Amino acid sequence: MLDKAPNGKVTELLATLDQALSAGDIERALDLFQTDCYWRDLVTFTWNIKTMEGKDQVRGMLEARLADTKPAKWKIADGEDSSEADGLIESWIQFETAVARGFGHLRLKDGRIWTLLTTMVELKGFEEPKGFDRPMGAKHGADRNRKTWKEEREQEAAELGITKQPYCLIIGGGQGGIALAARLRQLSVPTLVIEKNERPGDSWRKRYKSLCLHDPVWYDHLPYLPFPANWPVFSPKDKIGDWLEMYTKVMELNYWSSTTCKTASYDEAAGEWTVVVERDGQEITLKPKQLVLATGMSAKPNMPTFEGMALFKGDQHHSSQHPGPDAYKGKKAVVIGSNNSAHDICAALWEAAGDVTMVQRSSTHIVKSDSLMEIGLGPLYSEQAVQSGMTTEKADLIFASLPYKILHEFQIPIYNAIRERDADFYKRLEAAGFMLDFGDDGSGLFMKYLRRGSGYYIDVGASELVANGSIKLKSGVDVQRLTENAVILTDGTELPADLVVYATGYGSMNGWAAELISKEVADKVGKCWGLGSNTRKDPGPWEGEQRNMWKPTQQPGLWFHGGNLHQSRHYSQFLSLQLKARMEGIPTPVYGLQQVHHLG
Amino acid sequence: MLDKAPNGKVTELLATLDQALSAGDIERALDLFQTDCYWRDLVTFTWNIKTMEGKDQVRGMLEARLADTKPAKWKIADGEDSSEADGLIESWIQFETAVARGFGHLRLKDGRIWTLLTTMVELKGFEEPKGFDRPMGAKHGADRNRKTWKEEREQEAAELGITKQPYCLIIGGGQGGIALAARLRQLSVPTLVIEKNERPGDSWRKRYKSLCLHDPVWYDHLPYLPFPANWPVFSPKDKIGDWLEMYTKVMELNYWSSTTCKTASYDEAAGEWTVVVERDGQEITLKPKQLVLATGMSAKPNMPTFEGMALFKGDQHHSSQHPGPDAYKGKKAVVIGSNNSAHDICAALWEAAGDVTMVQRSSTHIVKSDSLMEIGLGPLYSEQAVQSGMTTEKADLIFASLPYKILHEFQIPIYNAIRERDADFYKRLEAAGFMLDFGDDGSGLFMKYLRRGSGYYIDVGASELVANGSIKLKSGVDVQRLTENAVILTDGTELPADLVVYATGYGSMNGWAAELISKEVADKVGKCWGLGSNTRKDPGPWEGEQRNMWKPTQQPGLWFHGGNLHQSRHYSQFLSLQLKARMEGIPTPVYGLQQVHHLG
After folding, report:
1. Tens of pLDDT along B346-404?
2. What is the pTM of this model?
3. Are B351 and B470 found together in one domain?
4. Does A430 fall in a domain?
5. Are the beta carbons of A137 and B225 separated by less than 8 Å?
6. Cβ–Cβ of A150/B347 closer than 8 Å?
7. What pLDDT score does B2 carry?
8. Which GO terms fall under molecular function for this chain's record (chains A, B) (predicted)?
9. CA distance B432 to chain A (A)
10. Among the four A112, A195, A287, B282, which has the fewest Cβ within 10 Å?
11. Full domain range(s) for residue A119
12. What average pLDDT score do residues B432-451 get?
């Protein structure tokens, strides 16, 4: 028998919250919170993506935003029940503000709010045309001035960017740009995506040939059109390329491929960008109000500079340029780096009967794909989860409801379990000399991803080759210099090489801003990504949210979108709403605009 | 409080049925049936698509098929409850046979079976790889002989039809061929689709420009990948073309466009077809075991022959060749016919400021799109239905559970309601001289569609133009002859014309068999479509199922697939299973192979 008691407690609390907030009684509202509380708001109160940690920060936000936001109608979300377990009460909630409808999540500890997530679902009056409101398609009745759908699309394609300016220009047509553009189209925001490659999906197609997605399918759905039940767990790169290409078409995106951005500058007075692009060799000037860089977390290569690189006679390139092993059968390869790309590339080279050495300069977090899938993602993103009634929307929101500040505490037990489950595997890796870590605090892969976007490998087979010596390993060393035909390491080892691959990672996305806009603007917005956790490659101070991602930056009109497929999907919802609000002239006073502490 | 009593009754009946059938006690099983009963079997017992009407026919089928089928494990379907209303108990059921798993539907009247639907879900040991069984995609581990997905697809494309023969060849790459090919791929049946046009979806793109689907989106989903929630209710033709094109790609279909079939002949001894096709100008010989004609219900044009056609100096063509109104702005057009195409074309010509006359030779059933959507389809295929928990799968099965013999009885009240709702509309139409009908027995559109595939118009605006005289009408007449610049009607009227469009319908699909294979084979299989209802254009004797569709024909190895999007979707499941069973060597003794009573 379903226990309805938690419903009563939550309903009562929400009623009190509602009254207190409506009355402007902030202290009364704060009484409902734990001292150690977290309120994460996605747009509704803060017009930002922001976590308030502790009562003082909650107070500060409410003092600034309560009167304006006018929250109301707090209740347990329609069709949902609260649940109680291990002393915690959890509930889905809904509410409204003056201009929007919200949905969220609540955790109560000892009857008080421990975590609160408020997210914007839609802007009143600007709801997406879906379900009951889906467009008719056919224009019934007779109309002498009828334009068919095809004619409308052709007219749109002929005008947008030429005679009519897009409100929003997205630079980068990978999954991030595509997901955001799909949301913006549903919100009727005239949007143009520009992509340097020839076809949507090429950013995947052009990668090394053995590449498959590392995240399982349930994690990867795009908005509106999930992968079907027979889609593989790990999409091969060309298959995901095909999906992105068709998605771009059927979602009716305005997408210019073979188009590069040359320059962009902002006119503060006009509130408008001037962006010069080159499309199929022709220069076109665009004047969007909003500019989104969706150029990718893994886009701006970090290319090291070693003594002697100019001398080296063999092939050398960054991992992003690596074509795969076909030209290197039986050759000697040295791969600098020990994270995801390095492992994939080493394994592929070994499969091509290559003699391959991995040069590991610092420790790497390794987790087996199966273990990650089952223990790490399983409860939220798996076939089992789906069968148990979990939806992608709810999984995303549950994930979003875990405050970054304490997320690692939830993760540590997961990785302890993984460490134990795969103990033998890890032992053999270390016996081969591999330098392992589990993140600075044992919190594993996802925290490393959030903090620094690197430093791990999701093992799909390469680790076995390292453990058994098939892939040779030099660890705890760096490159000293290159010669004509070898790599000399800092311990004096000389590695003869026909090929050197620098699997040395990627730089912050604001590097694109520096290239496309100006160094000044790039410095103005500062480093992208990272939480300020004061762990390796994620210096403090504590930000509490991803730097610059999916929210206002210090440069008006400039936004960054991207991340993995889950983030591209989920956060495209909130970024699209922020852009739509601005287009409609809805006031969007940003609370707690992030400060810049690092330049890149 | 959910009434569980019906569950008990159904469970008891199914247990008795199970025992009786397992014991081979046919009379005991028949005791559970109403005298006036219907058992519709989709493959599981009959390896056919067949309705047994009345106890004698049920007895006959069981005597032939029970021992072989070995049905077992009859129960209320997992997760379902029976329901009781208006003296009827309804239930979803599941069962197994020796080789398959089945799902079905039951209606009890006074405690006995009134209607029983048994359908094949999957063949044991050949389940589709989806959900928990979806393919991994990435090949984990190391493999020196690794082929990437892309390489596998390229190899497949290079071999299939060239060095490796497809088991199944589908002629016709519209929605029917595409849906069937998708199912067959999931069942690992090597399949090739050939399509005469250049791109998947062209069969829609090349139609007259104002065309949109006449069936609403919830009715139209393809297998595996439903349209998203923001897809229009009525897809414009180019939009559905795009969807079909991407579906073909992401479902990994082997699809040869710009390919026509020249000849096909069957080798009975070898159990194999020899099919000569022309692909991009090159002749290729294919040797499939199974040949499916999916050339379309609306594919073989019925072109009339009138005296004087050779004299006429203006443009004249069948509606299937009509390009739309653009070349005919302000011209005089005469459209022969008064069904769907005629109305669409007349309306578009009028919108192009044309002077257009519709020549109605026989009565037409008109139903307004909104009324059809709400009253006709609403309970099963609508946003409301979806919101109430109806799934496409269940809607299809509920529809399939209504015996054709009495389907019209269910339909008559619907069309009475529509007649009443739109009384004024119909009055005005008749006042304009339009000859209306509601089917021979008042059972309306869907019966007309099932019986003859023609004779109706789903009104999306043209009827208003007829009612108000914008589209001129001559009814109850036929064409006598044409002159150089006019059409002379049988009542002597002379209609000056720059354009004559023969919206005169389409012939039976076995006309394609005559053209591609031989007249002998076409006559062997006989007329396609129709129920044998002895109504206009559907002569008896009573067939009880669609002639030749989705089931074995009198020509071994020859099959017909198609129908509207709902039928293409639903029946592709059963046709694909019949083909898979044959490929795997599972015995498929066909019960009650249809006899041929009409040649076309």
Report:
1. 999 998 888 999 999 999 999 999 999 999 888 999 999 999 999 999 999 999 999 99
2. 0.93
3. yes
4. yes
5. no
6. no
7. 56
8. flavin adenine dinucleotide binding; monooxygenase activity
9. 18
10. B282
11. 5-123
12. 95
